[in-house]
Amino acid sequence: MGKTGEKILHLPVMTAEVMEMLSVRPDGRYLDATVGQGGHSSEILRRLGPAGLLVGMDRDREALMAVSERIKDKRLKLFHSSFSGMESTVRDGGYDAFDGILMDLGVSMTQMKSNERGFSFLTDAPLDMRMDRDATLTAGDIVNTWPQHQLEEIFRDFGEEKRARRIARAIVEARKRQRITTCRELADIVKGVIGRSGRIHPATRIFQALRIAVNNELEELDEGLRQSFSLLARGGRLCVISYHSLEDRIVKNRFRDWDREGLARRLNKKPVIPSPEEIRRNPSSRSGKLRGVERL
Ligand SMILES: C[S@@+](CC[C@H](N)C(=O)[O-])C[C@H]1O[C@@H](n2cnc3c(N)ncnc32)[C@H](O)[C@@H]1O
């Protein structure tokens, strides 16, 4: 919910480009592994005939609830799972050999702008950042209990933040006085260390690092790519949209390795990026990079 209680909707990114890459067949079987607010799923359903199938998955139960309310369609089967549980969840449901799988990484605008979920430094939400609220570790736990060197490590490795040490030290000093509870409090501590310069908010990298750590995002992605591949039929396509360089590197390298090993053919060597028109309409699409492979 936004400040006034209205639902913030997520605009799907590079929809036309994703649909072209997936090249949806009316009678095909598709898996949307990040169903989110159902934007891409709706487009896949529009292209499917009566015999087609779409399995939708997400680790966020709230997102799945919203989609099950919004999209009433017998061809859509929804499952709650993270990437690391994808293969068993989907196979236990009786599905495999997909013609296309989509992974649209990161968080949705609905999650990002929520006043409760704690993803945005512009809110007074508690420091949470769990995509899956059944998980136990929150950003607040990390910020208030992890040793300084571990904070520094994630800020450097997951946030690519040059001032990681100074920020980690400032957090440890601040939490001695009192527990750091809200996103805004943490953002202010970071701003106090590095000041405000440039276009992006000084806490952007720190929030990215915490989100990756809370949700184990890089290992999840690695595992998700592996499991997706084994769920693809021969000739089936895997399309991934990533939103930062750490994710894109993992996708790029994995696709290159499959290509070299003769397991898959890359559909593009350079990532597809949103058009200037899309970025104008939806600025949060600007860092999106789309890559695809076809299983041989
Ligand atoms: C960018 S949004 C997807 C938006 C969606 N394509 C749409 O059009 O509405 C990313 C979604 O992926 C989910 N997600 C991220 N990492 C995940 C993981 N490891 N396992 C399962 N779902 C994940 C998030 O909870 C979020 O709902």
Fold topology:
Layout: H1 15-22, E1 29-32, H2 39-47, E2 53-58, H3 61-70, E3 76-80, H4 86-92, E4 98-104, H5 109-112, H6 139-145, H7 148-157, H8 164-177, H9 183-194, H10 204-215, H11 217-231, E5 232-242, H12 245-260, E6 264-266, H13 276-281, E7 289-295
Parallel strand pairs: 1-2, 1-4, 2-3, 4-5
Antiparallel strand pairs: 5-7, 6-7
The structure holds S-adenosylmethionine.
Structural description of this entry:
Mean pLDDT is 95; it is low at 1-6. This protein has helices spanning 15-22, 39-47, 61-70, 86-92, 109-112, 139-145, 148-157, 164-177, 183-194, 204-215, 217-231, 245-260, 276-281; strands at residues 29-32, 53-58, 76-80, 98-104, 232-242, 264-266, 289-295. A 7-stranded mixed beta sheet has the order 3-2-1-4-5-7-6, sandwiched between helices. With 296 residues, the protein is an alpha/beta fold. α7 crosses α8 and α8 packs across α9 (183-194). It is 44% helix and 15% strand. It has 2 domains: 15-108 and 219-295, Rossmann fold; 111-215, Putative methyltransferase TM0872, insert domain (DNA polymerase, domain 1). The protein is built from 13 helices and 7 strands. β2, α3 (61-70) and β3 (76-80) form a beta-alpha-beta unit. Residues 10, 12, 34, 36-40, 58-60, 63, 82-83, 104, 106-108, 131, 220, 224 line the site of S-adenosylmethionine.
